[in-house]
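ok so heres the complex, two chains, lmk if somethin looks off
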Amino acid sequence: MKSLLILAAGDEGHEPSPLAVEWIEVVIALVVFGLLFFAIRKFVVPNFEKTFTERTTAITGGLEAAESKQAEADAKLAELEKQLADARHEAARIREEAREQGAQIVAEMRETAQAESTRILDHGKAQIEAERQQAVISLRAEVGTLATGLAGRIVGESLEDDERQARVIERFLAELETADAAGKDA
Amino acid sequence: MTFTASATVRAEEFSAPGPGIFDLPGIAGSAVTKPMVQLVLAAIIIFAFLFLAARQRSLVPGKLQFAGEGAYNFVRNSVARDVIGGHDFQKFVPYLVAMFFFILVNNLFASVPFIQFPTFSRASMAYALAGLSWLVYNAVGVAKHGPIGYLKLQCVPSGVSPVMYPLLVPLEFFSNILVRPVTLALRLFCNMFAGHILLVLFSTGGLYLIESGGIGYVAGPLAWVLAILISFLEMLVQFLQAYVFTLLNAMYIQGALADEH
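and the predicted structre for the whole thing:
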């Protein structure tokens, strides 16, 4: 402090105006400022600006990505729900169809079985009838012959005459059948 | 009252600090003075800080990068973008950032212990920056509007009857072209000069009062307390001067770029 005061006191006489232009100082200030300006323009500003741009894009990009992801998820959910509903409908339809088909199959089987049984019954009846007819025919012929022979022998009367013989046999058989029928009725 | 009395008694011993205190001798006998060294030191500090902060380029900034971005964005957004606006401001950002921090750090040197000298209390250095500002805003205007168009823009006020032109055109020319660099330089220089001289006055005056004894044992420390308070006020002034200088630069550039004003 003292030295400053002494210095100030010492310079009192030939003191230059503080407003005077010192060209060396003007030039130095301009040069130093110029260097600082170019250094900042080249090394500082681009880095900061790039960082800001990257940050902005990162933030907006992140938001956009999240939004699109959300939309995608919503779409997927809707699609899955639709698929689920479709699948339910399909399942219901298939069940219904199966039930109908089952019922139809049962009805068809029943019908077939009915027809088969009827056919077997008819066949049996026809066979029995045919066999009975055959038995009746053969019995009739045999009984006729036997009876004729027996009667001929008993009566001694020739019954060689075929026409008469046949008539007698027919009559006899008719009587027999009548008696048979009466007996059966009784 | 006794204080003033004793001060007047010893007034012949106390020489108040004058403009001479700004005339520093060259360091070690050379032509290099302390403010010149300060200019270089300020440039190195500013560039190192901004460069290291900008180099990391992390999307989630660390402490240094955050501080650097805050400082850079203060000039970029609240000076360059808000004043110049539009898409034009980006190319003036390096200039305004360099200007603001160059003046700010050089001003703050006045309050840094062991340096304690505001660089721009050397008027020539303030002239240099003011002259540069004048060149920049006029060059920007001429580049955009051509020499005639630019002069017309700066000197012929729109929406005024041509009858008033003989009165207004010289006035506009005077205020927009001639006075601006002078006010820029003097505003910065005078604030730094006066602030520093005030601090020196209170500090040396306090010392003198204590040495003179008596009531000086009370008045001297009081002067030093005032000096400390003034130091805080000075820090505000140092910041404001850097801000005003840069803001006016931006406004002049904006005015030179404007289509109508």
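quick notes: The interface with chain B takes residues 1, 4-5, 7-9, 11-12, 15-30, 32-33, 35-37, 39-41, 43-45, 47-51, 54-55, 58 of chain A (CB under 8 Å). thats all i got rn
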